[in-house]
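Running this now, will post back.
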Amino acid sequence: MHSSEERLENIRMIRDSAVAFAPASELARVRGLRYQVPGFDGAVWREMADNGWLGLSLPEAQGGIGLGMAEYCALLEVFGAALLPEPFVPAVLAARLLDGEQLAAQLSGERLLLPALQEQIDNLEAAEGGTRLHNGKVRGRKLCIPMA
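Update: finished.
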């Protein structure tokens, strides 16, 4: 368990490193990526992973750093102020559902797996058993898929 002084120091260091990484003045970069595919910079994404931020709140037993919500929120405040287009929050949420090689690839920035909202939107999909993978292709219909 971290003392409150250690925790405050962790939060300060996280904020300082995040501000140095993502100054709020980089709006031209954000605007430039807005209509590009995939909509974010892969090199920036890998640097975020290299900094350990994808595993900041993930327990150490799962390969994360094991810090708490206050530290995670401090990081999110800086990223939000900078309007970073990188899909940090959904990637962190997805990491909590992964394990093994998939988790390692997510935390290292080598692979990006994001959650998708599944909605059954017609009777055809229900009759076919919903969305499924067949011969390496996904069949079905989904709405609200971030970064797709």
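The CA atoms of residues 90 and 111 lie 13 Å apart. More later if anyone needs it.
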